[in-house]
Amino acid sequence: MNNKLYISLLAAGVAAIASSCSNEVSTRQSLSSPDGRIQVTFDLTPQGRPCYSMVFSGDTIIRPSMLGFELKDQKPLTDGFKMQSVTTDAVDETWVPVWGENDSIENRYNAMTVALKQGDRRLDIEFRVFDNGMGLRYIFPDQSQKTFEITGELTEMAMGGDYTAWWIPGDYDTQEYEYTKSRLSEIRALSTKDQMGNVSQSVFSPTGVQTSLMLKTPDGKYVNLHEASLVNYPAMHLNLNDTTLTFTSQLTPGRGDVVATVDVPFSTPWRTVTVGDKATDILASNLIYNLNEPCALDDTSWIEPVKYMGVWWEMITGKSSWSYTDATDFDLATFDYSAAKPHGNHAANNENVKRYIDFAAANGFDQLLIEGWNVGWEDWFGKEKEYVFDFVTPYPDFDIEELNRYAHSKGIKLMMHHETSGSIENYERHMDAAYDLMNKYGYNAVKSGYVGNILPKGEHHYSQWAVNHYLNAVKKAADHNIMVNAHEAVRPTGLARTYPNLVGNESAMGIEYQNMTPGHVTILPFTRLQGGPMDFTPGIFEMDLSKVSPNNTEHKRATVANQLALYVTMYSPLQMAADLPENYARKMDAFKFIKDVPVDWSESRYLDAEPGEFIVAARREKGKPNWFVGGVTNEHARDYNLSLDFLTPGKTYTATIYADASDAHYDTNPAAYRITTQQVTSADTLPMHMAPGGGFAVSIIAE
Asked: What is the pLDDT of residues 158-188, one digit of tens each?
């Protein structure tokens, strides 16, 4: 279908939908952003269906879109509503995060709550409109019906045009995909292709996508769709009608046909639309955090940003093993290792761990993650066994007491690892003992993992039951003064504001994946990172993994300078130097940037960006005048003039520039970099060249 005909048919559909929202009795309510550029309109159709739309700077971003729910064995909450009341509010405040990209965050919005009644059932819809977007949520007030069994949420987001999208397919269990760029109308054709080689069986629709979804309008405005404050509810996906270009919420199912059970009073997560004139407006947005509740912890003094290394990459690359022995030499029924013969390739042994501790401590790191320290790794993956890990019993060659003593004597801590193998009930049985063990030995951070099918069977990684577990684990960790970095859990939705001990998540394709394209790191800050930081595990210096493990033929598609820049462009209070100590030892001049770059900031500025193309960001060190700048590009080389006008006028700084060499290339010459130093002021502009798959990093230290 040619584009003109497609647009003509879409316009006809828009007119039909718009007319369906009109009502002879005026129920229309409008709400504007504080600066007046965004208008959200709510109405009831003649059939009593709730309907809303959104306009940004005169452009329709969300066409009239319906709201409601399907319920088990009951009349749906879709039509027959009557408006009972409308209340409004305005908030203008500033709050201080425990950690973050900035010292403080402005929270300024206008609000409207519409109270609806369908017979004796009540449903409120709340809107908050910010200068950079809006959120809406459903509120089930206290009423005679105390429990609602939801079989489907029918929130629509009818797009204002055939926008460009950066998307990953709808999957109830993983976000570990690369992003596809296409028009909305092209998603069906493209999503039927196998993007990774192991697409999950839970992909729910050839037109389903996951949030956070990044979009761009034909006239150059930027739009992001996501959700905020995901609590006691399944994660939302978006199912696209590619004829009308209308998304409808698709909740992750659990066991049975009820996707969510809610007891009144109850508020759903927020459905969010972030907008901006520039791509950097999306990157700088705090809308998701602002729609979460304030910090729920009375004491946060024990929460601290962490820069860490790990006994991890050597297992990822195949150099070493997580397990102590071979499955054939081990009785999993008894966990008796007394007669087991070590296979000699176990990474988490006392000698090797001490080697890592020495290197991490000598170079100023805070912690060292150790995976494969505990019994059970011989036969754990994909077995759907509920008893594999107990999270407290170390392997015979891992002296947990001595290694923690040794680490503390060197001034660092060890980071705990809890791989649940997806068996949530087993983890919950052992969680108190596991956290107690951490307290006993001085651990204050845990990396939890949920690899494999969620048990009990029938649940998914993003179901209501699993979502509740992830948050309960964070709450219980807070009771023990423990920070959490959850891998394979549900994507974050800003809950780190409420529970700041949730210092990191994975929930996306990280550096360990094979053949990840260079442009991936220029998309993640627009998508996955909108809800919270990611433990991307950057800092790989040896891209040819055959030099790490002879049987590994993978080649990482990045330059060294690109890997340095990620510590700035991809914000996280939890940053890992992921490569092996020996690989860093050969490039200690470049490693200095990883040693120097902070993980907590007073001020952040996104200088320039385009999703899938490049990102340039500058951040000021927490409580200090020093700045750090990072720039990354996709597979195309790029020249960029870095203006230093963000520096304090009249001050002189020493800039150390870590850049791609002239012949650098992610494929043919990834290790080619150059380091230069010069004095700079706010009046200077630095010409930067980014090689294909490359980037640059700059430390700017006040004199």
From this structure: 999 999 999 999 999 999 999 999 999 999 9
Q: What is the pLDDT of residue 172?
A: 95
**CA-CA-CA-CA dihedral for 149, 151, 155, 157, to nearest 10:** 160
Q: Give the Cβ contact number of residue 683 at 10 Å.
A: 11
Nearest CA among 687, 696, 702, 589 for reference residue 654: 702
| Nearest of 21, 86, 101 to residue 53 by alpha carbon | 21
- Residue 310's alpha-carbon distances to 207, 314, 367, 398, 521, in angstroms, are 39, 9, 8, 15, 22
C-alpha 272/C-alpha 262 separation (Å) is: 21
CA 680 from centroid of its chain's CA atoms: 35
**How far is 674 from 452, CA to CA, in rounded Å?**
42
Amino acid identity, residue 456?
Answer: P
Reading the block at residue 435, the tokens are 């956290």
Does 515 have pLDDT greater than 90? no
Q: Enter the tokens of residue 351.
A: 């000698």
Contact between 214 and 224 (Cβ < 8 Å): yes
The yes-or-no verdict on residue 207 having pLDDT over 60 is yes
Among 536, 440, 425, which Cα is nearest to 482's?
A: 440
First to last CA, the chain: 62
- Select from 429, 424, 438 the least CA-distant residue to 374: 438
Nearest to 257, CA basis, from 384, 149, 125: 149
What are the φ and ψ backbone dihedral angles of 594, each rounded to 5 degrees? -65, -40
Domains present along the chain, CATH in parentheses: 3-290 (2.70.98.10), 301-505 (3.20.20.70), 515-530+538-570+579-703 (3.20.20.70)
Check 512, 542, 554, 621 and give the catalytic one. 512
What is the C-alpha separation between 461 and 424, in angstroms, rounded?
10
What does R_g of the chain's alpha carbons equal in angstroms? Answer: 26
Q: How far apart are CA 228 and CA 251, in angstroms?
A: 14
193 pLDDT higher than 60: no
Residue 7's pLDDT band (boundaries 50, 70, 90)? very low
pLDDT score of 24 = 53
State residue 343's pLDDT score: 94
Which of 457-461, 586-590, 678-682 is predicted least confidently?
Answer: 457-461
Angstrom distance (rounded) from CA 559 to CA 645: 27
User: pLDDT digit string (tens) for 270-323?
Assistant: 999 999 999 999 999 999 999 999 999 999 999 999 999 999 999 999 999 999
Q: Are 493 and 500 in contact (CB under 8 A)?
A: no
* Identity of the residue numbered 530: Q
Cβ within 8 Å of residue 489, ≥6 positions away: 448, 450, 461, 466, 470, 505, 506, 507
Four-point Cα dihedral 489, 491, 495, 496, nearest 10: 80
Q: Which pLDDT belongs to residue 335?
A: 74
Whether residue 101 lies in the annotated active site: no
| pLDDT at residue 701, rounded to an integer | 98
pTM of the model: 0.95
